[in-house]
Amino acid sequence: MQHGGGRSFRYGQCRGQLLPHSHFYPVGNTPAVCLTHPLPPEQDAHLLLLGCGDARNVLFTIYADLRKLDFTCCDLEPEIIARNIVLFTLLMDDEQNNNLQKIWNLYYHRLVDQDSLELLREQASKLKKLAATTDLWRRGEYGSMLRFLDSYTLTQVSQLWDFYSQRPPDGSAYENQQNLLHQEFQEAERVRSQIVGSNSMLGGLRSTAPVSTIAHDDLSTSYRRYWTYGVADPSQEANGLDNSLNPMLGTPNAALIIHHATDPVLDFHLATGYAPLSSNSPLKPNKGEDGSFTNACYQTAFVEFAAYAKTFRCARPRLTIRFIASDALALCHTLQHMNNTGNSEAHWYRNSQTYVPLNLDSNDFNPRSDHPAPLSFDAIDTSNLADHLGCINLLAAAGPLLNRKPTSTLSTELLVRCEGDLNDYLKDLLLGDLPTVALLFNLTPIQYWTGTTATSVWDERQLNIVLQDSLGEYNTRCRYIIQWKSARHSSQETNLLNDTTIPLQFEQPGLTNLLYQLYLRMVEDESLPVLATSRKELASGPSGFYTRASFVAILGLIHKSDLVNWSVFIRELCLLITRHHSSRSMSSYTSPQEMFVYLHMCGLPLPSDYELTPYRPVKGMPCPLQNWKTIPPTLCITIVVPRTLLGFLKMANPMDGSPIFHVVLNGPQTNGFGKLTFAGVRNSESCVLSVQHDGEPWTGIAPMIVSVIVPSSIIRQDRSMSTRVTLGLKPTVPVQRFMDELGQGLAICQSSLKDPNVLVTKHRPNMTGYQSISGNSVSPCARPKELSMYQSTDSQTHARVHVSLDKDLKVKCITVHVDIYAGPLQDKLRSKVAVSVFQDSIFGVSIRFQEGPLIEQVQLPCPVTMTGSETRIELEASYVEFRAPVATRSELSSRPDNFYWTGIYQQRPIIYNPHYISLDQLPILDIEESVKLKWLINDLADMWSETERAFRERNMATNLRSNFKNTLLKLFVDFAGVQDTKHHKPFSLSDPQNGGLFALIFPANLRLDLPHQTVVLDVAIIPLSNNSIHKITSLLSTIETVRSSEIKIDERESLLWKHTLPAMVERCRTWKHKRACEYIRAEKMPLSLETGDRYICSCGKGTFPAGFWSRNKGDEADLWRLMSKHAIRAAISPCFSVPFVERQYTLPLAKPGPVSPAPTDNPPTKPTGLDGKRGLCAMCGKTRQEAGGLRECNGCRVAEYCSRECHLEHWRGEHKGLCRRVDRAGSSM
């Protein structure tokens, strides 16, 4: 396509990290998670950690899981990897556990003693020698377990180990190290003082969940200790300032500054320091003789660290940990390219601030390697990179790397500074309908469809509500993790090249409109109405994350997955986009040309009207590149920018992030500091650029080099090479401060094509080809036909799934089309044997003859309802077509099978949710100290959404979810005794109208589910059926003497429990299913929902750890001996609502009154919030009239009390941590 005359065009934009300082995160600021919790226990796990950060998630996963684990750890900063390897190797070497305190000091403290420092120097020197070459490292003592994906990363971390190893005898090298460390720590303290001042960092409270209301003071003390004395251990506080600077917390890169919220204890689950634990509990901190301790945060963290160390050493034979220092998106797209082509040369730079190519040159990518590196993964954790890279960019890059299994999961953690409501933010995360857009990446948000999660966010939300009261708006970081499952999976083991999943296809008009709307959202900051919008709206918009490369990455996946008739789809889409850009609503420099450049780079077919084609110069026709034999469709323009023009960046606020650069021609873009050289004649066809990276971008002397790919038509039409090339800043709210220096256009430098600081080449510097986006994949039509479609093993059928969208561009209905080929099935069809469609599960249907064999079993990308469905049979064409509407939210919420999904995959029972759990590693709460468990009420009350709470308060028994949560509440509250109730053991579930008792539940322990910030009941279950009840008649009579508690429920809830209990058993099992497992024989889970039928398999009966019931004496111990052989272990978790599905109920901040296990006609008599029930005592609930008057809290001016005694008691309990007087001091999170 030709450019319009006289118009300016922008090509490329890049958020390069070009500020003088950027944040360094040596330790995390959120508690560790278990990376394998989506996976069944027998499955060895390949795990990808993007933005891996410190070692906490790796260590906690190893602590919580006994399987074989293969971690691939990617982080932008080599400092993170160097630190982690030092930690891992020190832990391996410390076989007698003699150096644990020193190892802690080195990994976490800013100031360390000489003994610890000497241990670091010795270890770093040892590692540096082993890393002399890749072969030497591979053959060394750590090489079989700790491996590198590329030689460049090994070189980078080796240089850091050299930095760590410096000693005083090393002279100037040691002096330089010490001077640099002093400068870095002083600058970090300056920045911290500027941002935090004397305030507290309340964000750390999430590490104490679910008991955060009582940990505020300790966390504040811990934070101040760390930044004053450089240590987390109070016993080292006195000597802290006399200690030496720790190079493990520093870096040779002076641009990296330790983040101002850093506090080592936040890596750990601190609830064990505040909740009462039983004497035999794992992770129980050591207390003083008086049963208390003053340094709860550190003691708790160190006990957990010690448990990690012990498990890590024992787990060494089953571990492989791989490392790479690169940008997360660059790694993912390179792995996609390797999956699709087998070639590692994907032409990505290591990150957007350097010209060092990403070259995965490890021998582990050789299929014959002894330690082959995975190219696809069972679980992918992206940390909170979605906050920095954009969720769509992450899903497009990492989603295709998931193994095609139903349990494969990609996790995105959001730790965003919300300018508005969390619910609304999450709903708009993908710039469109969440589950519909997710299908473009072959993903489904599991929590969206179930509307349930076993993860609590109560502490997180309450912290935000308190700060909202103080600040007048939502302006705090709110953490939420979304789990994305593979939407389509194969029925057999497969790799990504041999994709045997059932094809998914969209109707072309709907998909075209969906992509067009996505495009408009991605470039909305270029439209004049949006540019004129308010400062707040512009600042909180999504446009800063996305470029046209983001959009083309989605198109690449659509083309690769064959989701639509590509030629029709892309023509209509291009037409819509070009029409949009010709409208007056767009900024003068915008153009779709950048999109066409990316489409060309990806090799995606375009209509001839939009195709970029090569050009052969014709003699006699003026052309600035006349001597080129062939001018390719695109060319690279490289600009050399003197560093004197970049001084304005020193005025930038690091809290605003780095400005976004773009190239405007009157520009895909990369920038970085370095020395530019070229071979060949300038601007000739043979000219090749090379950039030598400057490792000191702000203290060095090299200029900044900026490269951008443009259509060659721009250059070949400019006979005089006078086209103006401008490098500028993209207009955003934070960069407005630079307008005084840069002018209204925010131009940094202006040149023309003929200027000596502008060069034109075929490819970008240090590259010989186009950057691969979405794998630059082979077209589906180019793959062998048998690999691009699903066929059943007998090859008699071929199934396809079609998706239709409604006018709001949401998935409306699903159509399953099954072609039946010549053979017995076709003969049966043509003989007019009746065909029926059965809904096997919320996500699956079976098409079968009424009397005869299965035709096809299909896993659907969305849950459907049989109401309004239709089946069409064509005898001549030999196909069956089933069409069903997608289930509505009200239909899903009322289905007993839509709380917890279970299934059979490859002859194994699996669960989709809730998460798998390792009970024996979790702390045990001491329920004898129930007075210290009052925080449990708030956590459990958070199960209800606003809608469910309304049903509950109106005493309406028609809401299935509310009723189910009432039953859960009774189980937890009665067993814990937090409302002065007796500890009922056992419980029985009874449906009086349908056979009576169907389950006995024997709670053994109440445990802290640490990574999910809640609790879990460790129980034994006896599922009752007609066949089993006679075996335990005597047992039932015995139970009558042991204070049993019968919970009566209706038929719908009993069906829900028959779905729930098998999932709760499956999620915590430590045993293997037998060959004769009833689930596998029946090919379903649960086995049956009919009254009196068995619904749980018998494989795990009688399998319990030693001492499971040791706490019980007398009659209860006798009872356990009777019932244990009939019982199965299970893990029952609370069932929380999901914020982007239903608005969550706003929970109380004041001390709550009793929460009844079932609805009552009487309204609650105690306050329901800090600012909720005016006129009641926040402690005892007396009215103003009953108390003869109330007095306000002097701090928050909201909570009211009837007496000084009530005020003091409430202050000591919970109000101290929540009063606005305290929280106002901690508004920086």
From TrEMBL:
Residues of the MYND-type domain: 1177-1219
GO cellular component labels: nucleus
Record GO terms (molecular function): DNA-binding transcription factor activity, RNA polymerase II-specific; zinc ion binding
Top-rank taxon: Eukaryota
InterPro entries noted in UniProt: DUF4470, TF_DEAF-1, Znf_MYND
Endpoints of the signal sequence: none
Keywords attached to this entry: Metal-binding, Zinc, Zinc-finger
Protein name as it appears in the record: MYND-type domain-containing protein
